[in-house]
Amino acid sequence: MNRVLGIDATIYCDVLIIGAGGAGLRCAVEILEKRPETHVIAVTKVSHPQKSHTCTAQGGLAAVDPRDPADKPIYHMFDTWKGSDCTADQNIIKRIIEASWDEIIWLENRGMHFSRDHEGRLGKRTFGGHTLNFGEATAYRAVFEADRTGKGIMDTVWGEAIKRGISFMNQSIATELLFKGNQCAGSIIYKKKEGEFVRVLSKATVLATGGTGQVFRITTNCRQNTGDGLALILQAGLPVMDPEAVQFHPTGIIGPGILASEALRAEGGVLRNKDLEPFMERYAPKMKDLAPRDVVSRAIETEIREGRGIFNPDHEVSHVWIDLRHLSEYVHDVKLREISGFFKKFVHVDPKKDLCPVRPSNHYHMGGIPTNHLGEVQNNSLEPVEGLFAVGECAAASFHGFNRLATNSLLELITMGRFAGERILEYLDEVSFSLPEDEGELTFSRFSGYLEAKGKDRTAQIRNALRTVMTDKVGVFRDEDGISQAIETLKELKERANNSALSVKSLTMNQELIQRWELDNLLAVSMVIAQGALNRRESRGAHYREDFPERDDEYNYHTLISMREFGSVKLGNRPIDMSLYESGGEHYQEFGMIERRY
């Protein structure tokens, strides 16, 4: 074929944001509110920012109201630390939680329609792992907008960004980061509709590309969540952190895996096995159905493994029930209307009358691109990469450690988005444009390879095989043999991918070409997830090794993995910040390496 690919145009901007979900747009708005003349471009993979995965978040976001007579920020900090299985960074926990209520006020002042109680105050929900007085009682600290909280956040930040003159590049992907020495100078952007490669040179570049859910066969994630930001980082020779820390939500709707929010259990839903026994009291005697997600997911899988699940012949998989029949008409029709509709649409059951089938579904990646408390990306030496930032699910500051508490993800989106925006405003005064050393040769080499490959394998078949092996071998339960088998399978799939031909050779609106690029990203991310899981010979949070079922102090660190060439990994680590414990201040003992019981 011998097609020559090259740069079709060069664009300059002050800030390039790759990903236009909640975190990316919160960062953009912080910049544009404080410095309206800043030229900000936001790239989104989808047709419109409102198609971003943030819109699917349902239940709420945690924040302690300073006027609450019972709740305190220190309790939220403790719950986050304990929920993380003592692996979150305490400086990040403190910084985010102390800023949380200010962000609620920020959202409401800009028009977000938070749900309210009958007295006109902000409504509150409880979620798994959120407690008062260091675990003594259940905390109601999550504010929400019915069961579409993420959509409310996106409506707000998108509107503010539009109002302040942001520029969008829709249906576009970032294929390569550009550097001048240690300074990020922008990115190569492929515009899918036009079939063009654009070099965007920026003073600051922000990765906000979302999660990695399409690594797994059953996931609550949107179709576009293929780990693109992590793949960009690996391609640049930079590390990802804690890739093995993958969360499975306990209640994915049987079949598609679509999220049935924890709000269902917060409102009183009960998990039951085939004998209709409310089984969670065996696994978490105190918190029962509102234990943290990793605990509930393993409990459900154990019930199914031990023969107490219900086999669904339509999907050829076993599940448990969530019982919502006793909830009020108001809860069904107002507070959880959309989720109830999902059960009717996808599995043809009426939650008011019928038991609803659920089982764990891949949900969230606690690991990601390592950053400091300002959102600056770190290299293998833990030094900031000049001009490069990461926020949202693709980033790991680390607020979540090895298990994220429900509602803490939306809180992280808006706070870290703001913190990165504040740092970028300072950085813009310190830097000027730099011409990168690279003109996109890596991008053009890869895409030429995709277009010129010959072979009979198909991208979809390889992708399905990848998702199957990751689900079966690197899922809720893991062991050395299974993970090792997954790694060997991934190597074979990479070879098959290199020889898979495209049926359409056009650059313009070629979805098959995009899927081929995504497949390379999924392979890279899957490999580092599996390598991290193999290296961590202990169980911690959502990472559960059946051959090493206990937490081991030898692994009291964050995993760092870099992989410039596929399969050739370099392992390192980052210390866990324990500054709350080390300060010796009030309640410091609650932030040691505590036992995790619920």
Question: What does the secondary structure layout of this molecule look like, with pairings?
Answer:
Layout lengths: L8 E10 L3 H13 L5 E4 L17 E2 L10 H11 L6 H20 L21 E2 L4 E2 L3 E2 L5 H15 L3 E3 L2 E9 L2 E9 L4 E12 L20 H8 L4 E2 L4 E8 L9 H4 L3 E3 L20 H13 L4 E3 L4 E7 L5 H7 L1 H11 L8 E10 L3 E2 L5 E3 L5 E7 L4 E2 L11 H21 L12 H12 L6 H15 L6 H19 L12 H25 L21 E6 L7 E6 L3 H4 L16
Parallel strand pairs: 1-2, 1-10, 2-7, 10-19, 17-20
Antiparallel strand pairs: 3-6, 4-5, 8-9, 9-10, 11-21, 12-16, 13-15, 14-15, 15-16, 18-19, 21-22
Any overview of this molecule?
Helix content is 33%, strand content 19%. With 598 residues, the chain is of the alpha+beta class. Strands 1, 2, 7, 8, 9, 10, 18 and 19 form an 8-stranded mixed beta sheet that branches. The protein is globular and about 65 Å long. 56% of the residues are buried. The chain has 3 domains: 9-245 and 366-428, FAD/NAD(P)-binding domain (3-Layer(bba) Sandwich), CATH 3.50.50; 250-361, Succinate dehydrogenase/fumarate reductase flavoprotein, catalytic domain (Flavocytochrome C3, Chain A, domain 1, Alpha-Beta Complex); 441-569, Fumarate reductase/succinate dehydrogenase flavoprotein-like, C-terminal domain (Methane Monooxygenase Hydroxylase, Chain G, domain 1, Up-down Bundle), CATH 1.20.58.
Structural features:
FAD/NAD(P)-binding domain; 598 residues; eight-stranded mixed sheet; alpha+beta; Flavocytochrome C3, Chain A, domain 1; globular; five-stranded antiparallel sheet
